[in-house]
Structure formats: structure tokens, C-alpha cells
Write the C-alpha cells for this entry.
Amino acid sequence: GAGVSQSPRYKVAKRGQDVALRCDPISGHVSLFWYQQALGQGPEFLTYFQNEAQLDKSGLPSDRFFAERPEGSVSTLKIQRTQQEDSAVYLCASSWTSGRSEQYFGPGTRLTVT
Amino acid sequence: EDQVTQSPEALRLQEGESSSLNCSYTVSGLRGLFWYRQDPGKGPEFLFTLYSAGEEKEKERLKATLTKKESFLHITAPKPEDSATYLCAGIIQGAQKLVFGQGTRLTINP
């Protein structure tokens, strides 16, 4: 079956612009996660949804970052007033349930802020 | 602070030269230890989950093991196509997120 898909794959934004990144999880997966990956580093947690409920947003770096999953399927990560330090790869992952289930990752969106 | 540390940061081997990658963790109440492979420009690809000390899992040339303080990813007779970054991550008590190490960049020369 289809894996996790993300769009766009690449995004260039000028500093101060708003961006929206989309994630389509594997069909039927209850849990959805967003991670941020800087060059040469491991992914870092941003936020977590179980169905449509955002249960953990402790990793969001500032109030410019906002995520939603209104119908418990597709999710959008929005970054307002982008800054250069927001440049990174944004990864989405989904899993059947929460807890110890393995998470399956999408290809990521590479965001470059100029 | 819960932390996952991988070593070495980079490893270069000749084809057929077996070795091990290390993942040490200082987390309270580890509920699962995950290994992923990541190729350039792609998302991490799931390899293994280990849940308790003493557990081992194998897939082709890879074998993952877990002790109370660390995990090893053993690679036997590697091939150039095994070249990738290998990431380990833990899930801790009371949380759902993965805490990743910084990865080991493995290069297998033909």
C-alpha cells in the first residue's frame, strides 16, 4: 500500500513569509507525528496527534509554528513569519497506535528560508 | 535529561568487513528502542524495534541487540548498498515521541 506522503518536497520561502506543509499518513493510522531534522542531525520531535486531537506540542519551537489534523487524517504544519533558523527538513510519521508502535516516515519537505 | 547517543559519528568499511554501531541511552523507563536507516534525501526507513534487554532481531546482514544501557547494530559482510545513515531512537515512559540519536554515517567501499 501507499506510504506516508508529504508535499511539497521542496519549499523556498523568503524571510517573513508563511508556509504550509502537508502530510498524508498511511490509511488507518491513528497517530501522526511531525519532526524537524537539521543537516547532519537526527530528527527532533515537534508535535503529536492521536486522531484529530493534538496531545503533545511540547517540541514546537515557537508560537509561529502551528499544526492541525482536523479530520484525523491529513495534517498540515504551518510556519508563520519564517526565519532563517527554520530552514530544515520537516518529516511526518504515522503509526497504527500510540506508544511502542513503529513509526513510518514520509520523504520530508526541505524548507529553505532566504 | 533523556538522551540517546550514537557512536561513531561516521564509519568507513571495506566491502565484507563486519562491524558494529553503538547506541547508548540515558532515559528513564525506556519502552522501546528503534533502529532506522536513512538514505540521502529520504525519510528514515524502519528496521527494528527492541523492547527488552537481551532481545535480538535480524534482517539480512543486520542484527540489532539490546542491553539495559545500550543497543548495537551489527553488520555482517556489508555491501556497498548498505551505505546509509543509521539512526537509533527511544520511546520513553509516559511519552509517544521518538528521541533520536544523531546517527552514524556508514560508508561501504567496494
Residues 39 and 84 of chain B are 5 Å apart (CA to CA). The first strand of chain B starts at residue 3 and ends at 7.
